[in-house]
Every structure is written in C-alpha cells, then in structure tokens.
Design goal:
Blueprint lengths: L3 H18 L3 E8 L2 E8 L8 E3 L4 H8 L3 E3 L8 H5 L7 E6 L7 E6 L7 H68 L2 H29 L2 H5 L2 H16 L2 E6 L3 H5 L6 H20 L5 E9 L2 E8 L7 H17 L4 H12 L4 H10 L3 E6 L5 E8 L6
Parallel strand pairs: 7-8
Antiparallel strand pairs: 1-2, 1-6, 2-3, 4-5, 5-6, 8-9, 9-11, 10-11
Helix pairs in contact: 1-4, 4-5, 4-10, 4-11, 7-9, 10-11, 10-12
Length: about 400
C-alpha cells in the first residue's frame, strides 16, 4: 500500500484533479492483496466503501481492462462499480495508473450532472500521467532512503564493533594478561596488587560498556520517557564532554494527557537530534554550555539547542548542502546513496544529513542559525497537527 509520503502526494493530486475538472468526486484507487483500496479522495470521505475485491466485482472487471473509460450516463449494470464504491451514478472518467510495482491503480472522477467534454478527458489523462511519474519518483526516493538507512546502520554496527574491539576487548585482554603474569610469578603480593589493578580496570570497562549501550538505545527513553532520557543525556554530556547543559521542557497538552509521553518515533527523533547537537557543540565548537528547550509555539512543537561555542560560518550553506544531498536521491536515480555518502563526508562532522532526515520523517523541519564566535542554534520545528492535535 501507500506510504505516508505517497498518501500525501495522492491526496494532493486528487485535490488538484478536483480543482482542474470541477467534478463532484475524485478517487485514487490502488491494488493491494487482490483488493482495490481507495487511498485518497477529494472530498476526503467521498467514497463510503474504501475496499472492493477484484474478483467478482464490477470495479475489478474495469480495473483489469487497464484502459481509459468514459461513462456518459451509466445506468443498470454499467453503474454497478459506482454502487460498489457507495457513489451515486453520474458521468464518470477512469484513467489507469502504472505504479511501477506489482499491481496498479486507477484515477476516477465523477460528476452528478454535467457530462465530461473531450478537453476534460485529455486533461484527466495528462493528470494521471503526471501522477504516475510523481508516484514512481516518490517510490524511487523511498527506496533510496531505505537503502541509505541500511548502509547507515551497517556503518553504525561497524563503528560499534571497532569501539568494542579497540577499547573493550583490548582492555579486557590487558587485564587478563595482568592476572596471568601475577599468577605465574607465584608472589602473593604481586597477585594482590594485580587483583586491585584488575578490579579498577573492570570498573572502567563496565562504565565504557554502559556508555556504548546508552549510545545504542537509552533505556530511560523506553522506560521513563523523553524528560528522564534527556536529563540522563545532560548528565552524560557533563561527564564525558565537560559540557554544562540546562534543560527546559514544556510538552504539548496531548503529551501531558498521556503521562508525559509523545509518539515513540518523535521522542526518538528529539532525543537523537539533541544528542547530535550536544556532541557537535562540544567536539567541533568547543562549547562549555548548552541550553536545551522543548516548548510549544504558535501551533508548533519546537526543540531548540543553543550553545556558546565557536559557531559555524555560513550555516545556511551547510544546511542547504545537506538539503540538496537529501533531495538528490530522487533527482538522480541510482546515485542517491552515493550523494548521501558524499554529504556525510562534507557535512558529516555536524551530522546534518541524518538530522534533516530524522526531522523530515516526523513531518518537521530542521533549522540552523549561527555566527562565528557567537555559538550556534539547532532548531527542530514539528507542527502539532502532525501529533494528532
């Protein structure tokens, strides 16, 4: 079926068709699991039936013909497919859609009275062709995003494997050698000294492993929610980077009604963007303080991270570069992953491509403001409408 991005596109095109042809109803119908699903409609609840089986239905018979059709005044059996959708009979147009995947679809327009003219039919055919192209481009972009996400995860796994090998495994190996040498010496004092040394070393390794586990997925985010996870992140930023973090959270009403919890994907997005911004502030801008605010402003949920570091020169160029690399996955079929990897090399020090991608996946926007020597502000803005407000 259609993804969230595809549904947005299909609903947009349904509205556009309704404005262009002035029909009473426009439907976008796609095949899935041997059924025909109404995935977009203008007006939104135009069709009373949202799913029609292909086998044994009049609509399924028309769909399998796979050709444009125009109905002047459908009556009797000719109007069965309209009744299957819960629509009143009237002049109608049907255009097949090629989706580039197994199964296709149809674009349907229905009027109550006035017949469609030849010019309407031509415009409807052109609109269907445009929808087919844009849907194919959206699906190609989605495939590139998925492929890029897989490669990102593999790179993350490789990074954690290196850290475990270079730090934890080698550290434990050194401790084992210390114990073995003490044992072989036969000197009780050396064994006791080695035991103290190994206990101290194991404590360090435990802290290191806990840090790695938290980096992978903070338990507090799942168990206690965003506020507790961010408080733990602030403490860790102080311990690891020496970065003083001030937190100010004011969550929207719907989160307060759900025991302070937002949607899980949104909480993860907020956490990861703040985590990346704090890391940048310390490692690249050498900041000593960061103010983190989560609040509601004019219908938006806003997440703001402001630091007192060295700042970034031309932040708009940096953000635009990340945006162009993100959009190139749709504009350059087959080269999207390479473009994303190039962006990571150019802007990877700031993690902007990944931060932008996270923001867009929750329907938000990433903003970056900075002046050299005056710190930087990273801002995530998500419309509350995206949260079901």
């Amino acid at each position: 079926m259609a993804t969230r991005g595809e549904r947005w596109l299909l609903e947009l095109m349904a509205d556009r068709a309704r404005r262009l042809l002035d029909p009473s109803i426009v439907l976008v119908i796609l095949e899935a699991d041997r059924e025909l699903h109404v995935v977009a409609a203008s007006p939104e609840r135009a069709a009373r039936a949202r799913v029609v089986p292909i086998e044994g239905s009049a609509l399924g018979t028309i769909y399998r013909q796979g050709k444009p059709l125009a109905f002047e005044r459908p009556l009797g059996a000719q109007a069965d497919w309209l009744r299957e959708l819960g629509l009143e009979a009237g002049p109608a147009l049907i255009q097949p859609l090629e989706t580039g995947q197994p199964g296709g679809g149809m674009l349907v327009a229905v009027r109550r009275e006035e017949s469609f003219r030849d010019a309407d039919m031509s415009a409807f055919a052109a609109l269907a062709a445009n929808l087919t192209q844009r849907l194919a481009a959206e699906r190609l972009a989605e495939q590139e995003r998925l492929r890029y996400g897989v490669q990102q995860r593999e790179r993350e796994r490789a990074r954690w494997a290196r850290e475990l090998h270079d730090d934890t495994v080698q550290g434990l190996g050194a401790l084992r050698m210390t114990l073995a040498n003490a044992r072989d010496s036969g000197d009780p004092q050396q064994v006791l000294a080695a035991a103290d040394q190994v206990i101290e070393g194991l404590n360090r390794e435990v802290v290191s492993i806990r840090h790695l586990i938290t980096e992978l997925r903070p338990a507090a985010l799942d168990d206690l929610g965003l506020e507790a996870a961010l408080a733990a992140l602030a403490r860790r930023a102080q311990d690891v980077y020496g970065l003083e973090v001030a937190l100010e959270l004011s969550l929207p009403a719907q989160a307060q009604e759900q025991e302070g919890r937002l949607d899980g994907e949104l909480e993860t997005t907020i956490y990861r963007i703040i985590q990346e911004a704090l890391s940048n502030a310390s490692r690249h801008a050498h900041a000593t303080r960061a103010d983190v605010r989560v609040f509601v402003r004019e219908g938006d949920l806003v997440v703001e991270i402001q630091d007192n570091g060295s700042g970034i020169e031309h932040p708009e160029r940096l953000l635009q570069g990340a945006r162009e690399a993100r959009e190139s996955s749709a504009a350059q079929p087959g080269k999207g992953v390479e473009a994303q990897e190039s962006a990571e090399r150019r802007y990877g020090g700031y993690g902007l491509p990944g931060m932008r991608e996270r923001a867009e996946l929750v329907g938000g926007e990433l903003q970056l403001e900075s002046q050299p020597g005056r710190g930087a502000t990273v801002r995530l803005v998500v419309p509350l409408a995206q949260l079901g407000a």
